[in-house]
Amino acid sequence: MKLVTVKQMQEIEKEADAGGLTFDQMMENAGQGLANVVLDLFVDEIEPEALGLVGPGNNGGDTLVTLTALVKEGWKAKAYLVKRKKDALVKQFVEAGGEVLSGDKAFEQLAEAIGNSDLLLDGILGTGVKLPLKKDIAELLAEVNDILDGLDEFPLVIAVDCPSGVDCDSGEAADETIVADITVTMAAVKQGLLKLPAFEYVGDLEVVDIGLPDDLASLKAIQTNVAEDGLISALLPDRPLDSHKGTFGGALIVAGSASYTGAAVLAGAAAYRAGAGLVTLAVPSNLHTALAGQIPEATWVLLPHEMGVISANASDVLAKKFERATALLLGPGLGTEDTTKEFVQNLITGKLTHKKSSARIGFLHEENKSEEADGTLPALVIDADGLTLLARIKDWHTALPAQVILTPHPGEMSTLTGLSKDEIQEDRQTIAGKYAKEWGHVVVLKGAFTVIASPDGRVTVIPVASPALARAGTGDVLAGLIVGLRAQGLDPFDAAVAGAWIHAQAGLYAADDLGTTASVMASDILNSIPDVLSDLE
Question: Is 0.85 topped by the overall pTM?
Answer without folding.
Answer: yes
